[in-house]
Write a structure and sequence with these properties.
82 residues; mainly alpha; 4 helices; flat
């Protein structure tokens, strides 16, 4: 019973948060653009890029975009991050 209820709740949550709105993933792109501006050395950029994947900065930005920011963008027609 608990498994079925959890599956239904998860399905309902996914159906409402991903209401056919493919957003711009602006939070992820802001983090990525910031990474490109940190330094001009390509090795340093790669090290920072790797660190941002290990410390889940990119992952949190993607999840935030998927669950919150793209949904807000869909209903307001404006990106949350410009």
């Amino acid at each position: 019973m608990k498994t079925t209820l959890a599956a239904v709740a998860l399905t309902a949550a996914l159906a409402t948060t991903s209401a056919a709105c493919y957003g711009s993933y602006s939070a992820f792109h802001k983090v990525h653009a910031w990474n490109g501006e940190v330094t001009s050395n390509k090795w340093s950029k790669s090290a920072v890029h790797l660190a941002l994947w290990i410390i889940p900065v990119y992952e949190l930005a993607i999840v935030g975009d998927f669950l919150i920011f793209n949904t807000v963008e869909h209903f307001t027609d404006k990106p949350v991050f410009k």
